[in-house]
Amino acid sequence: MAQAFDPAAATAAYLATLPPAAHAKAAAYTHGGHWLLLWGFLVAVLVSWLIVRSGVLPGLRRRLERRRARPLLTSLVVGIVYLLVDGVLSLPWSAYSGWWRQKQYGLTSQAFTGWLGEAAISLAISAVVMGLFFVALYALIRKAPRTWWLWSGGLTAVFITVMMVLAPIYIEPIFNHYTPAPPGPVRDTVAAMARANGVPADKIFVYNGSKQSNAYTANVSGLFGSARVAMSDTMFKQGADLAEVRGVVGHEMGHYAHHHALWIAGVMSLLAVVAFFLVDRLFVPVAALLGAESVRGLANPAGLPVLSVILAVLSLLGTPLTNSLIRIAESDADRYSLEHVGEPDGLAKALVKTIEYRAATPGVVEEVLFYDHPAVGRRIRRAMDWKAGHLSAARPGS
């Protein structure tokens, strides 16, 4: 008589494919990452304080006003200068958290010069994009000083949506080389999945993600005509089989099919309304606390460091909430993959490969507070439970 399938035993077997030392290393990396949230917050506050004390932004604004620059131009120039100065002052921390630590744990093979070059490009792009956002934000503050925070949600939604449309076309190719997936079983499989799940089947790419990270990943990004399937070359360098490809790409197609990016953008926009409401109420006392006496009111773009400190505090406190929103979407994408692709073992094998940068078995509280993806152990168990249920349904008389 055939032995019944045991989901718990199957989950334990998958987790045991990595040796204890690998799990211990993953736990050390993950727990250290929790502390990075606090240290990153403190660095952000320190950098904002240094910018305030330097007086560079109020001085720049006065010079622009003497030259009778329009308010829109003043907001743009002050915003871009603030972002560039902030990026330069934060560079040592960014290098440690974004490159050196990844190198120490074997999660990247990128040389520091390569990382630094990409960081400079990213800073330049962010300065332009966020500079435009600040132009619109400060225009709102000037036009509607009492209710600007209420309109900020719509502004945030517009910017997020525009970036989701433009990023796959104009930004992501700056950092990685995207090539059409070569003919063969992988491309045929992914194209068939795309057609079956309402994803454009004519844009299936492989990109050199291993240049920045050894992470095992794929994505379906973009909206409307910009949507495309992209698989990191790490999937192939780490020996992915078709079951894994189907499981992982099915998960990513779940994000696209269920419009996770849009509803997360919507929720984030609502949270932006709350955040900017608090900025409106807290700006004056926080400015006094930072010693920003030269900043005359919230409508002054020279007060960006003050605004940044308030948002940094709110971001840190709101981490469990934002993480939970993303975890819900990730769980739903797993469920979509299982229901529409039916590769529980392929998904489980792929998930095991992500353990090196996300410890597999955290406690419930740790997961809620710090994890923006469900714990790998729980994800594999859900896949095995799904498998058990479908094995039972397939048995005669069950």
Features:
single chain, 398 residues, mainly alpha, four-stranded mixed β-sheet, elongated
Quick synopsis:
This protein is mainly alpha-helical and 398 residues long. It is 71% helix and 4% strand.
Report, as a whole number of angstroms, the end-to-end distance.
15 Å
Low-confidence stretches: none
- Report the C-alpha radius of gyration, rounded: 24 Å
Question: Percent helix among the residues?
Answer: over 70%
Going across the biggest sheet, name each strand in turn.
Answer: 1-2-4-3
Helix/strand order: HHHHHHHEHEEEHHHHHHHH
Which secondary structure elements does this structure contain, and how are they paired or packed?
Elements: H1 7-15, H2 20-54, H3 56-66, H4 71-89, H5 91-104, H6 112-143, H7 148-175, E1 178-180, H8 185-196, E2 204-207, E3 218-221, E4 228-232, H9 234-237, H10 242-257, H11 260-290, H12 304-317, H13 319-341, H14 344-352, H15 364-370, H16 376-394
Helix pairs in contact: 1-16, 2-4, 2-12, 3-4, 4-6, 6-7, 7-11, 8-10, 10-13, 10-14, 11-12, 14-16
Structure in words:
With 398 residues, the protein is mainly alpha-helical. Helices cover 71% and strands 4% of the residues. It has helices at residues 7-15, 20-54, 56-66, 71-89, 91-104, 112-143, 148-175, 185-196, 234-237, 242-257, 260-290, 304-317, 319-341, 344-352, 364-370, 376-394, and strands at 178-180, 204-207, 218-221, 228-232. Strands 1-2-4-3 form a 4-stranded mixed beta sheet. Helix 2 crosses helix 4, helix 2 (20-54) runs antiparallel to helix 12 and helix 7 (148-175) packs across helix 11 (260-290). The chain is elongated.
